[in-house]
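Researcher: Please translate sequence to structure tokens.
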Amino acid sequence: MSGPSGRAALALLLALPLPLPGLLQARPRYEPTWGSLDARPLPAWFDEAKFGVFIHWGVFSVPSFGSEWFWWYWQKEKREPYVKFMDTNYPPGFSYEDFGPLFTAEFFDANQWADILKASGAKYVVLTSKHHEGFTLWGSKYSWNWNAVDVGPKRDLVAELATSVRNRTDLHFGLYHSLFEWFNPLFLEDATNAFKTRKFPTSKSLPELYEIVTKYQPEIIWSDGDGNAPDTYWNSTGFLAWLYNDSPVRDTVVTNDRWGAGSICAHGGFYTCSDRYNPGHLLPHKWENCMTIDRSSWGYRRDARLPDYLAIEDLVKQLAETVSCGGNLLMNIGPTHDGRIPIVFEERLRQVGAWLKVNGEAIYGTKPWRAQNDTVTPGVWYTFNPEEGKVNAIFLNWPVSGILELGEPRPKLGETQVKLAGYKELLKWVALEEKGMIIALPQLTPQQMPCQWGWTLQLTDVN
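Model: Translation complete:
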């Protein structure tokens, strides 16, 4: 390159900004096929988060009896307790649609909800934007006169909670969305046609999904309710390809596996496999245990009794088991029709948060260890912090003897250190022959205990 023109070109070339390293790699484009979509790496934040809160809220919160499947059990299955409940408490001819204006949410304070969620230690929240009843908690263009802006609260409940969660917490905001609707005439017509016609997904379900993603930018799309229709009927792969390629949340969004008959536990982002799924062993694919504090219902129900609610000991056990086996725990609460989180749910969430304040290092950002639970002492679950090379042993029962035997760790004399989370001093231990160790727990009064339900031993320098 010689002469004035060559030098000018060289100067121009040198003046150009260097491309950033990230720009050299083109963003992958995903095809609308399961083979392509399933190959998308799950955004790292989801595995690191470990714990989320599920919120089931809708018109079913008005009768708040039996289950959030109230409409189906009453009108379709005609279950006796539901029919009797309506006959006893409501006038003849009262329809499920008549519950809509009674879903008032007058006590709903999104800031208060956000503060409770933050106190729980959860890292993400999933709100039912629309359950199988079809009522949307936002003013959907595709749900005329059956949404929270037109009927009932006359408020955009999704927008209010999204704003408060983002302004007051570091939680990732997610939305649940039901693909099908029990009694929507268009869905029933498609079902009669063996899903050869697609009136319902093209005019209702898919437009809603695009609407909530564009409007609220949720980082989790928790799909549900395929109505026994295949994913081709729902065009799930087409929607997911757009979500991963072109949507405003394409880099951070995670999705589950409920995208049509046959997709559960086989396709999508993380696997849920079934409600309250807790396999008790390591799985090769990232999974989530979605479960309820009320043992029998996802929605709030006034007929619940105290023993129906899981105690904090049960919740800590579920969290330890789930995380040690590589899962996330999504713990469900059901608010009331007037917008309150019932005190029993608030207490449980705050208790979990108090436990995580002490034991969070054994949960957040951990990886499964080579053993998930102990082979000698029951009720001991392991997690691993790769950065520090630290093994966490979460034990659910404090031994009366004050001596805890662990069968899995292989300690190294003069190197292995044992700490109790929330307690300053190092603990004394003795190695057993091939592997395993005996640990002397500190003698503490109940007031000196770092927490009340489940404790963590932090082991460094173990094989």
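Researcher: Any highlights?
Model: Residues 295 and 308 are 6 Å apart (CA to CA).
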